[in-house]
């Protein structure tokens, strides 16, 4: 582990939990019974470093293997068990789907991005799909290469962020269905995006080995760190603590986490080596309990810590162990948890080899059956704090909070309305993003070639039809000319 002159020389983290007065020191992971798992899922074999899974209180969505184009399935949480082989899919993309995310305020709205350079927004009917869905509510084109990441704004109902392999982040205003801002400060592929609580700051990790804190509306970089000793892979804001946590690799190729002050990225506050495995570490942070979960891609373990504002900052709690390796993990929003069972977090683990989605509940052991207010503070609810136009005008608001005491029963009265718009040029920062977009990969080139071949074939058929029609009209005209003198 690297030492820094600006902090005390810290020791290698011991994985033996030390006793301390914490209500979360005995949290344990509980795997759902087999009948509550989802079986027979053709989970994608794509090696892209994403979760390929998204969950809300109604549905679980998973990216699937498909022959030609890209698809994902959406299953109601009540329909656990084995999936039918012909279960309907969302299959409108022409390339592999790389990321999917549910809208935090409209529980039937899901966004997806793909290798076909598009971002699409879908509306899933109540009760799930009854037939394949190919028509999206919105198709968003603006990237010149495949789109690897999407994120919804945490407090605004109609703002979506997308990051492409063209090294750009586009901000989409879904009220008009167009990009309104392009963030163009990265020099390589963007690996992850995360927002602070009110969505006024965006942090990114990038393949150029830099960690950035960005003001998203202006696109200006407020803080930047060049991570030479700690190669950053993933970054997450730690709620309102004004801290960032990153997972990455040390100079000795060990998996490592680092804690940063968001207002000073000159050096990490603390770095801790985790282990010598090679899989990517996914961080998940629960702002209500101040718990951090670390899940390794390709291994079956989930470690969890408690984050404090004072030393030692990171307190190791426990580790959930499982022999089945995880490809990705979906996370249930707070209002979908079982508060009666003292459940504080729930993962949906993708086990590719078994075609299985396995719910894992993180539970605080309590003897009392009453509502535990100390582990369920007011939490971000399902009402947006502001509209897209309000956020774009410069307004910031904290999330609208809700209590979990009476369970989550109140239906959301909001209705998602997609804009009706004509196809036209997309101009951001004076650049037309749709004009002469060149193919960057062999797959893109082949898709463009086949599309052009289909278009040429269609035009040739149209020309042939018109030639035949012209000859028919010429013959009719000659007949009329021949008939008219005899009549006179």
Describe the structure.
- The chain has 488 residues and is mainly beta.
- Helices cover 10% and strands 37% of the residues.
- The protein has 2 helices and 34 strands.
- It has helices spanning 388-392, 442-487, and strands at residues 28-31, 38-39, 53-55, 59-64, 70-76, 81-82, 90-93, 97-102, 109-114, 118-123, 138-141, 147-152, 159-164, 169-173, 178-183, 190-195, 202-206, 210-215, 220-226, 230-237, 243-250, 255-261, 270-275, 281-286, 291-296, 302-307, 314-320, 328-331, 343-351, 356-363, 379-380, 401-402, 427-428, 431-432.
- Strands 1, 2, 6, 28, 29 and 30 form a 6-stranded mixed β-sheet that branches.
- Strand 13 and strand 14 (169-173) form a beta hairpin.
- The longest helix is centred in the last third of the chain and has 46 residues, at 442-487.
- The radius of gyration is 26 Å and the shape is globular.
- The model is unreliable at 5-19 (pLDDT under 50).
Essential attributes:
37% strand, 488 residues, globular, four-stranded antiparallel β-sheet, mainly beta, six-stranded mixed β-sheet
